[in-house]
Every structure is written in structure tokens, then in C-alpha cells.
């Protein structure tokens, strides 16, 4: 590895920390919608695979911690992964413990990162000898993954029913483009569909504004009021051992380790289930119970995401987890740079994986730890006052439309619009991102199986 490549990796890591520190403080941003487009842009720009991986790992470490801070400070969820922390964070905020909550989140995030990375590489090493047989059954595994994620979701029956119609939609649009001569027969269209899924819920919300009755029903004439405690603006102790109890530390490490082998499952579901399990028998002191919960859940948000990326990427090269099929999708499939037959799994050796992940994770977790403990309130104040939420969402929407045009011209903009409307509606009805992304990757196999039945 050359010095120039190391410098590029460090620059990518620091860039991810700066970018996602501010994005993470914006309430309501979804992890997939802000991670996937930027990662895809870096891939398409021709960045070396080590740089891409270091950037992505740094981005998820930074974003997952920073997303929890608006929840603790102002009671607004930063993203999907911060949703399990809402109840406990709001309770602690009501007790005037918002600053303490952020410190515990920072320590939990560090524990989850440190525990998950070596375990993920160890599990990837155990799984690697089985890569051949697993890849031979890729279509079945991806379809089974979609079914499994559907069974773990909110609306199980609808999620199961929607898999085949979504698969047909994902295959029908490229077939239409080929038949109409919009794109050559050898060209594939998938990444803009991937981004169409990510923007779906937001697109539905925007389209609802065109409905006069729904628009009139929305709140008018006021701003959301938030309160920041003065204690959050003061300097704080940085030593982790003084920020969490021994019990909170051990529970965080244990649950992070337990979640790593379950990498194929939903990270949100695992965070909620294992986080609540850690406090199931702790009912005497509600404050201590909530403090342990936010610490453990912060560890889980990192361990589930890191395991969901590292294990499929290192061992298999195919997206078989919710994270790898969702936010990390461009690492596996980003035509024309990466495909399921030629991605980071094929381009990097194990030492390069370890170096890129370690550099990306450790540098970002150290920086974000200090930021969270020392300056979270100041950054929250700046973001809430100076960075319009709508501007960030508009930027990502414009980027997705641009990629849709690059993929297959103007017709594909409307194709992505169709996918966004369908998937956004299903998302609202309880069909989560994991099911939709896994169905996108499983679509060729599902449609081929349906054709064989006819």
C-alpha cells in the first residue's frame, strides 16, 4: 500500500467525519438515503476500493452516533437507527440528564465498534470456506433473505405478498428500456432503482403536498420549539470509565458480541430486542434502567451495522444482510464500476480489508467520541438554526434524479419516480427497506423462477 493511498484513505475518513457529523445532527434523515448516494458518487468517481471502504466505515460510525444526539437533546429522532433509543432518551431528557445520555451513547458506540470489528472478521473467516456453495445458491439465498426480513417486519403478510410484485416491477422496467431501445441490451439498470427505494417515503410526503386536503391538515404558522440545557455547553470528562458504570460497559460489550453473528437480521430490530433484553430485569430504578438501555443500544447500532457490512463483504461478496443490501449496496453493486461478480470482495485481500476498516472505524470513533462529549450541544444549536432540513433533502433528491438520467435518460427519471411511489407507499404500510432492497437483488432469480412455472 503506497503512501499516496494511505493519504487518500485518511482524507476520505476525515471527510466522512465532517460531512456526517453535520448530517447526523439533522433530525429525520434516514441512514440509507444519506449514506448510499454519497458512497455511490465516490465509487463512480473512480476512488480506489480501499478508500471507498474506509469512507463508508467512517461514515456509518459517525452517523450512527450523531443521529442519537438530536434524540437525546431535543427529542427528535436523528434517523431510523435512533428510533429504539427514543423512549429512554426522552425519559432521561425529562429528568435533566440529556448531557449524561450523550456521554453514555458515545461510550456505548465506542464499545460496540471495538467489539464488533474483530468478531466480524473472525466470523467472516469461518464463513469464507463456504462461500462457493453459498454463491451457487445466490438466487435462493437472496429470496430467502427477503422472506426472512419480511417475517421480521411490522406488517408481515403485506411484506410477503409484496415481494413478487416488486420483483416483477424491478425486472419489467429494464426490459421495457431494452425493448424500446432506450439502453443497449447489455446494459443493466439497478443502482438508480436502489436510490428510488431510498427516496420513496420522502417522495410520498412531498407528493402529499399536492393534495389540498392533506396540505391543509398539516401544521401551519409556527416553528418547532426545542430546548437545549445549559449543562450541555460546558466541558465534560472524557474518560469512558467515569461516564458509564461497569455494568453498563459489560452489558454493552456482551450484547454487541451477541448481535454480530446475527448480522443477517434487521439492525433496528436487533437494537430494540437486545437493548430491551439488557434491562428486562432491571426495574428498581427507572433512571438507571434507561441509562443502561441507551448505552447498550448505542453499542448495538454500531455492532449490527459493522457486522452487516464486514461479514458479507469479506466472506461472500454478495449482499445477504439488510445493511449490505441497503446502505452498503454500492459496495457490492454499482455499475459500471462494481457488480456482484466484481466488487470489493474480489478486489481486496484480507489485510487490505482489515486496514481500511480499522482506519475508518478507529479514527472516526475517536473524533466523534470527543465531539459528542464536548461539543454536541454547540453543533446541535448551529445545525438547528443554520442548516435547513429541506435543503439537505433537496440535495439528495436532485442527486438521485441525476443518476436516474445517467442510467437510462429521461424515461428512467419517471421509472425511478414510479419505484419511489410504489416502495414509499409500501414502506408506510410496514414493508421496510430491508425487504425492498433484498427483493431488488433477488428479482432476477424470482422472475426466472416464475417463468419456469409457466
UniProtKB/TrEMBL annotation:
It comes from the Bacteria. Residues 10-432 form the DUF112 domain. The chain crosses the membrane at residues 6-26, 38-63, 69-86, 106-128, 134-152, 157-177, 189-210, 305-333, 353-372, 393-421, 433-453. Signal peptide: none annotated. Keywords: Membrane, Transmembrane, Transmembrane helix. This is Tripartite tricarboxylate transporter permease. It comes from Arachnia rubra.
